[in-house]
Structure formats: structure tokens, C-alpha cells
Specification:
It is a single chain. With 196 residues, this protein is α/β, with parallel strands linked by helices. It has a single domain, classed as 3-Layer(aba) Sandwich (Rossmann fold), CATH 3.40.50. It is 40% helix and 19% strand. The protein has a three-stranded parallel beta sheet, sandwiched between helices. Helix 1 runs antiparallel to helix 3 and helix 2 runs parallel beside helix 7. It is globular, with a radius of gyration of 15 Å.
Length: 196
């Protein structure tokens, strides 16, 4: 989740609530339960070393576990407000964090959400060379509107791996709907992370 300086306090709240609402959506809940559950974790990212865990690894497989993760996410506090968009560093952090998932997964997915392009530190291509990304799909949720265009950037420079895609939120107010579409697409019969 993007916590860079381009994201206002209200926009950050829309992201938090949007992700929580998407998890709480009845269609998303049904999809999670239909595949037998998913491992889920979320962190906020901005500058090179400004990554803040919102929800650590949690296995979501029933209404109570999904509700608990959504509530924890919605209640999390913003870590930083003044740092740029170090997307490559966020990807490196995500790769290292994904290596700590508590159980083997059928499929591993990193989701990157943001409203701009990398403007601090190394880029996504460098992250993909420097960190372990074998067998990992990187999908994007690009929040449209900025210049340069984050949607084109995510499609050209960020997504990676089998079936990778970019979901587009027209603005921050559209975040919930876009996140729901993305989660349903990822959790669907061929795009999910489940226990072996």
C-alpha cells in the first residue's frame, strides 16, 4: 500500500478502508473460502527504508479470520508522510517478506498498489535481478491520474510473472471497487495461493 508523500491523509484512509472493505466483501469472502483459504499480509511502503507492516502473515479461511484481518488493516496507523516512491525497495522488502510465509503455497503473489512511478533508489528491474522472484507473480493496482502515467508504468515496468496484470483505480475513491476486482481475479480457480 502506497504511503509516499504524494498520498494525502484522506487518500491514505481511502486505501486502508478500501482494502478492508474489499476483504469484507461477500464475493471476496466466498472466493477465499471456496479455495480453502489464503495466506495474507499487508505493508505500507514509501521511501527506501520506510516499510511498515500493517498485517503480518495470517491464514484467512473463515469469516472470523477475514474480519480480524480487515479490522486490523483498517485500524493501522500511517508510518510516514514525507518520503518519495521507492518502488524497487518495496519489491525487495516484499520478496524477503514472502519468503517468511509460514506454510508452502501453491502460488505466490505480490501486489503493489501506488499512484506514481519509482522516483527514489533502484527500480523494479533492478529489484527483480537482486532479489528472489522465481515462481512469484507481481500484480499491480495503479491509481490513475498522475503524470507520468502510473498505469502505463505498472504495465511496462512493474508487473512480472505468469498471468501478471494491472488493475486500475480511476482515483482513490475507486480503490475499493478496483481492489475487489483484483482480489477476485487473483483468488479465482487458477490464480490463488493455497496450502499444498
Amino acid at each position: 500500500m502506497d504511503g509516499s508523500s504524494s498520498v494525502s491523509a484522506d487518500e491514505h484512509t481511502l486505501q486502508l478502508q478500501g482494502m478492508a472493505d474489499a476483504l469484507n466483501d461477500s464475493d471476496v469472502r466466498s472466493a477465499i473460502q471456496a479455495v480453502g483459504g489464503i495466506w495474507f499480509s499487508s505493508f505500507e511502503w514509501s521511501g527506501r527504508y520506510q516499510q511498515v507492516m500493517q498485517v503480518d502473515w495470517r491464514f484467512l479461511d473463515a469469516d472470523d479470520s477475514i474480519s480480524a484481518a480487515a479490522s486490523e488493516l483498517a485500524a493501522s496507523k500511517r508510518g510516514y508522510t514525507e518520503f518519495p516512491t521507492a518502488l524497487g525497495y518495496a519489491l525487495g522488502y516484499a520478496s524477503n517478506h514472502l519468503a517468511k510465509v509460514p506454510a508452502p503455497c501453491e502460488r505466490k503473489v505480490i501486489d503493489v498498489a501506488g499512484d506514481g512511478i519509482n522516483n527514489e533508489g533502484f527500480d523494479a528491474a533492478t529489484a527483480y535481478r537482486a532479489f528472489a522472484f522465481d515462481g512469484i507473480t507481481v500484480n499491480g493496482l495503479a491509481i490513475a491520474g498522475a503524470v507520468p502515467d502510473p498505469v502505463a508504468y505498472y504495465r511496462d515496468k512493474v508487473i512480472r510473472g505468469p498471468g501478471a496484470f494491472v488493475e486500475v483505480a480511476n482515483d482513490f475513491a475507486d480503490y475499493t471497487v478496483a481492489m475487489k476486482r483484483k482480489l477476485l481475479r487473483e483468488i479465482g480457480t487458477t490464480n490463488y495461493a493455497a496450502l499444498r
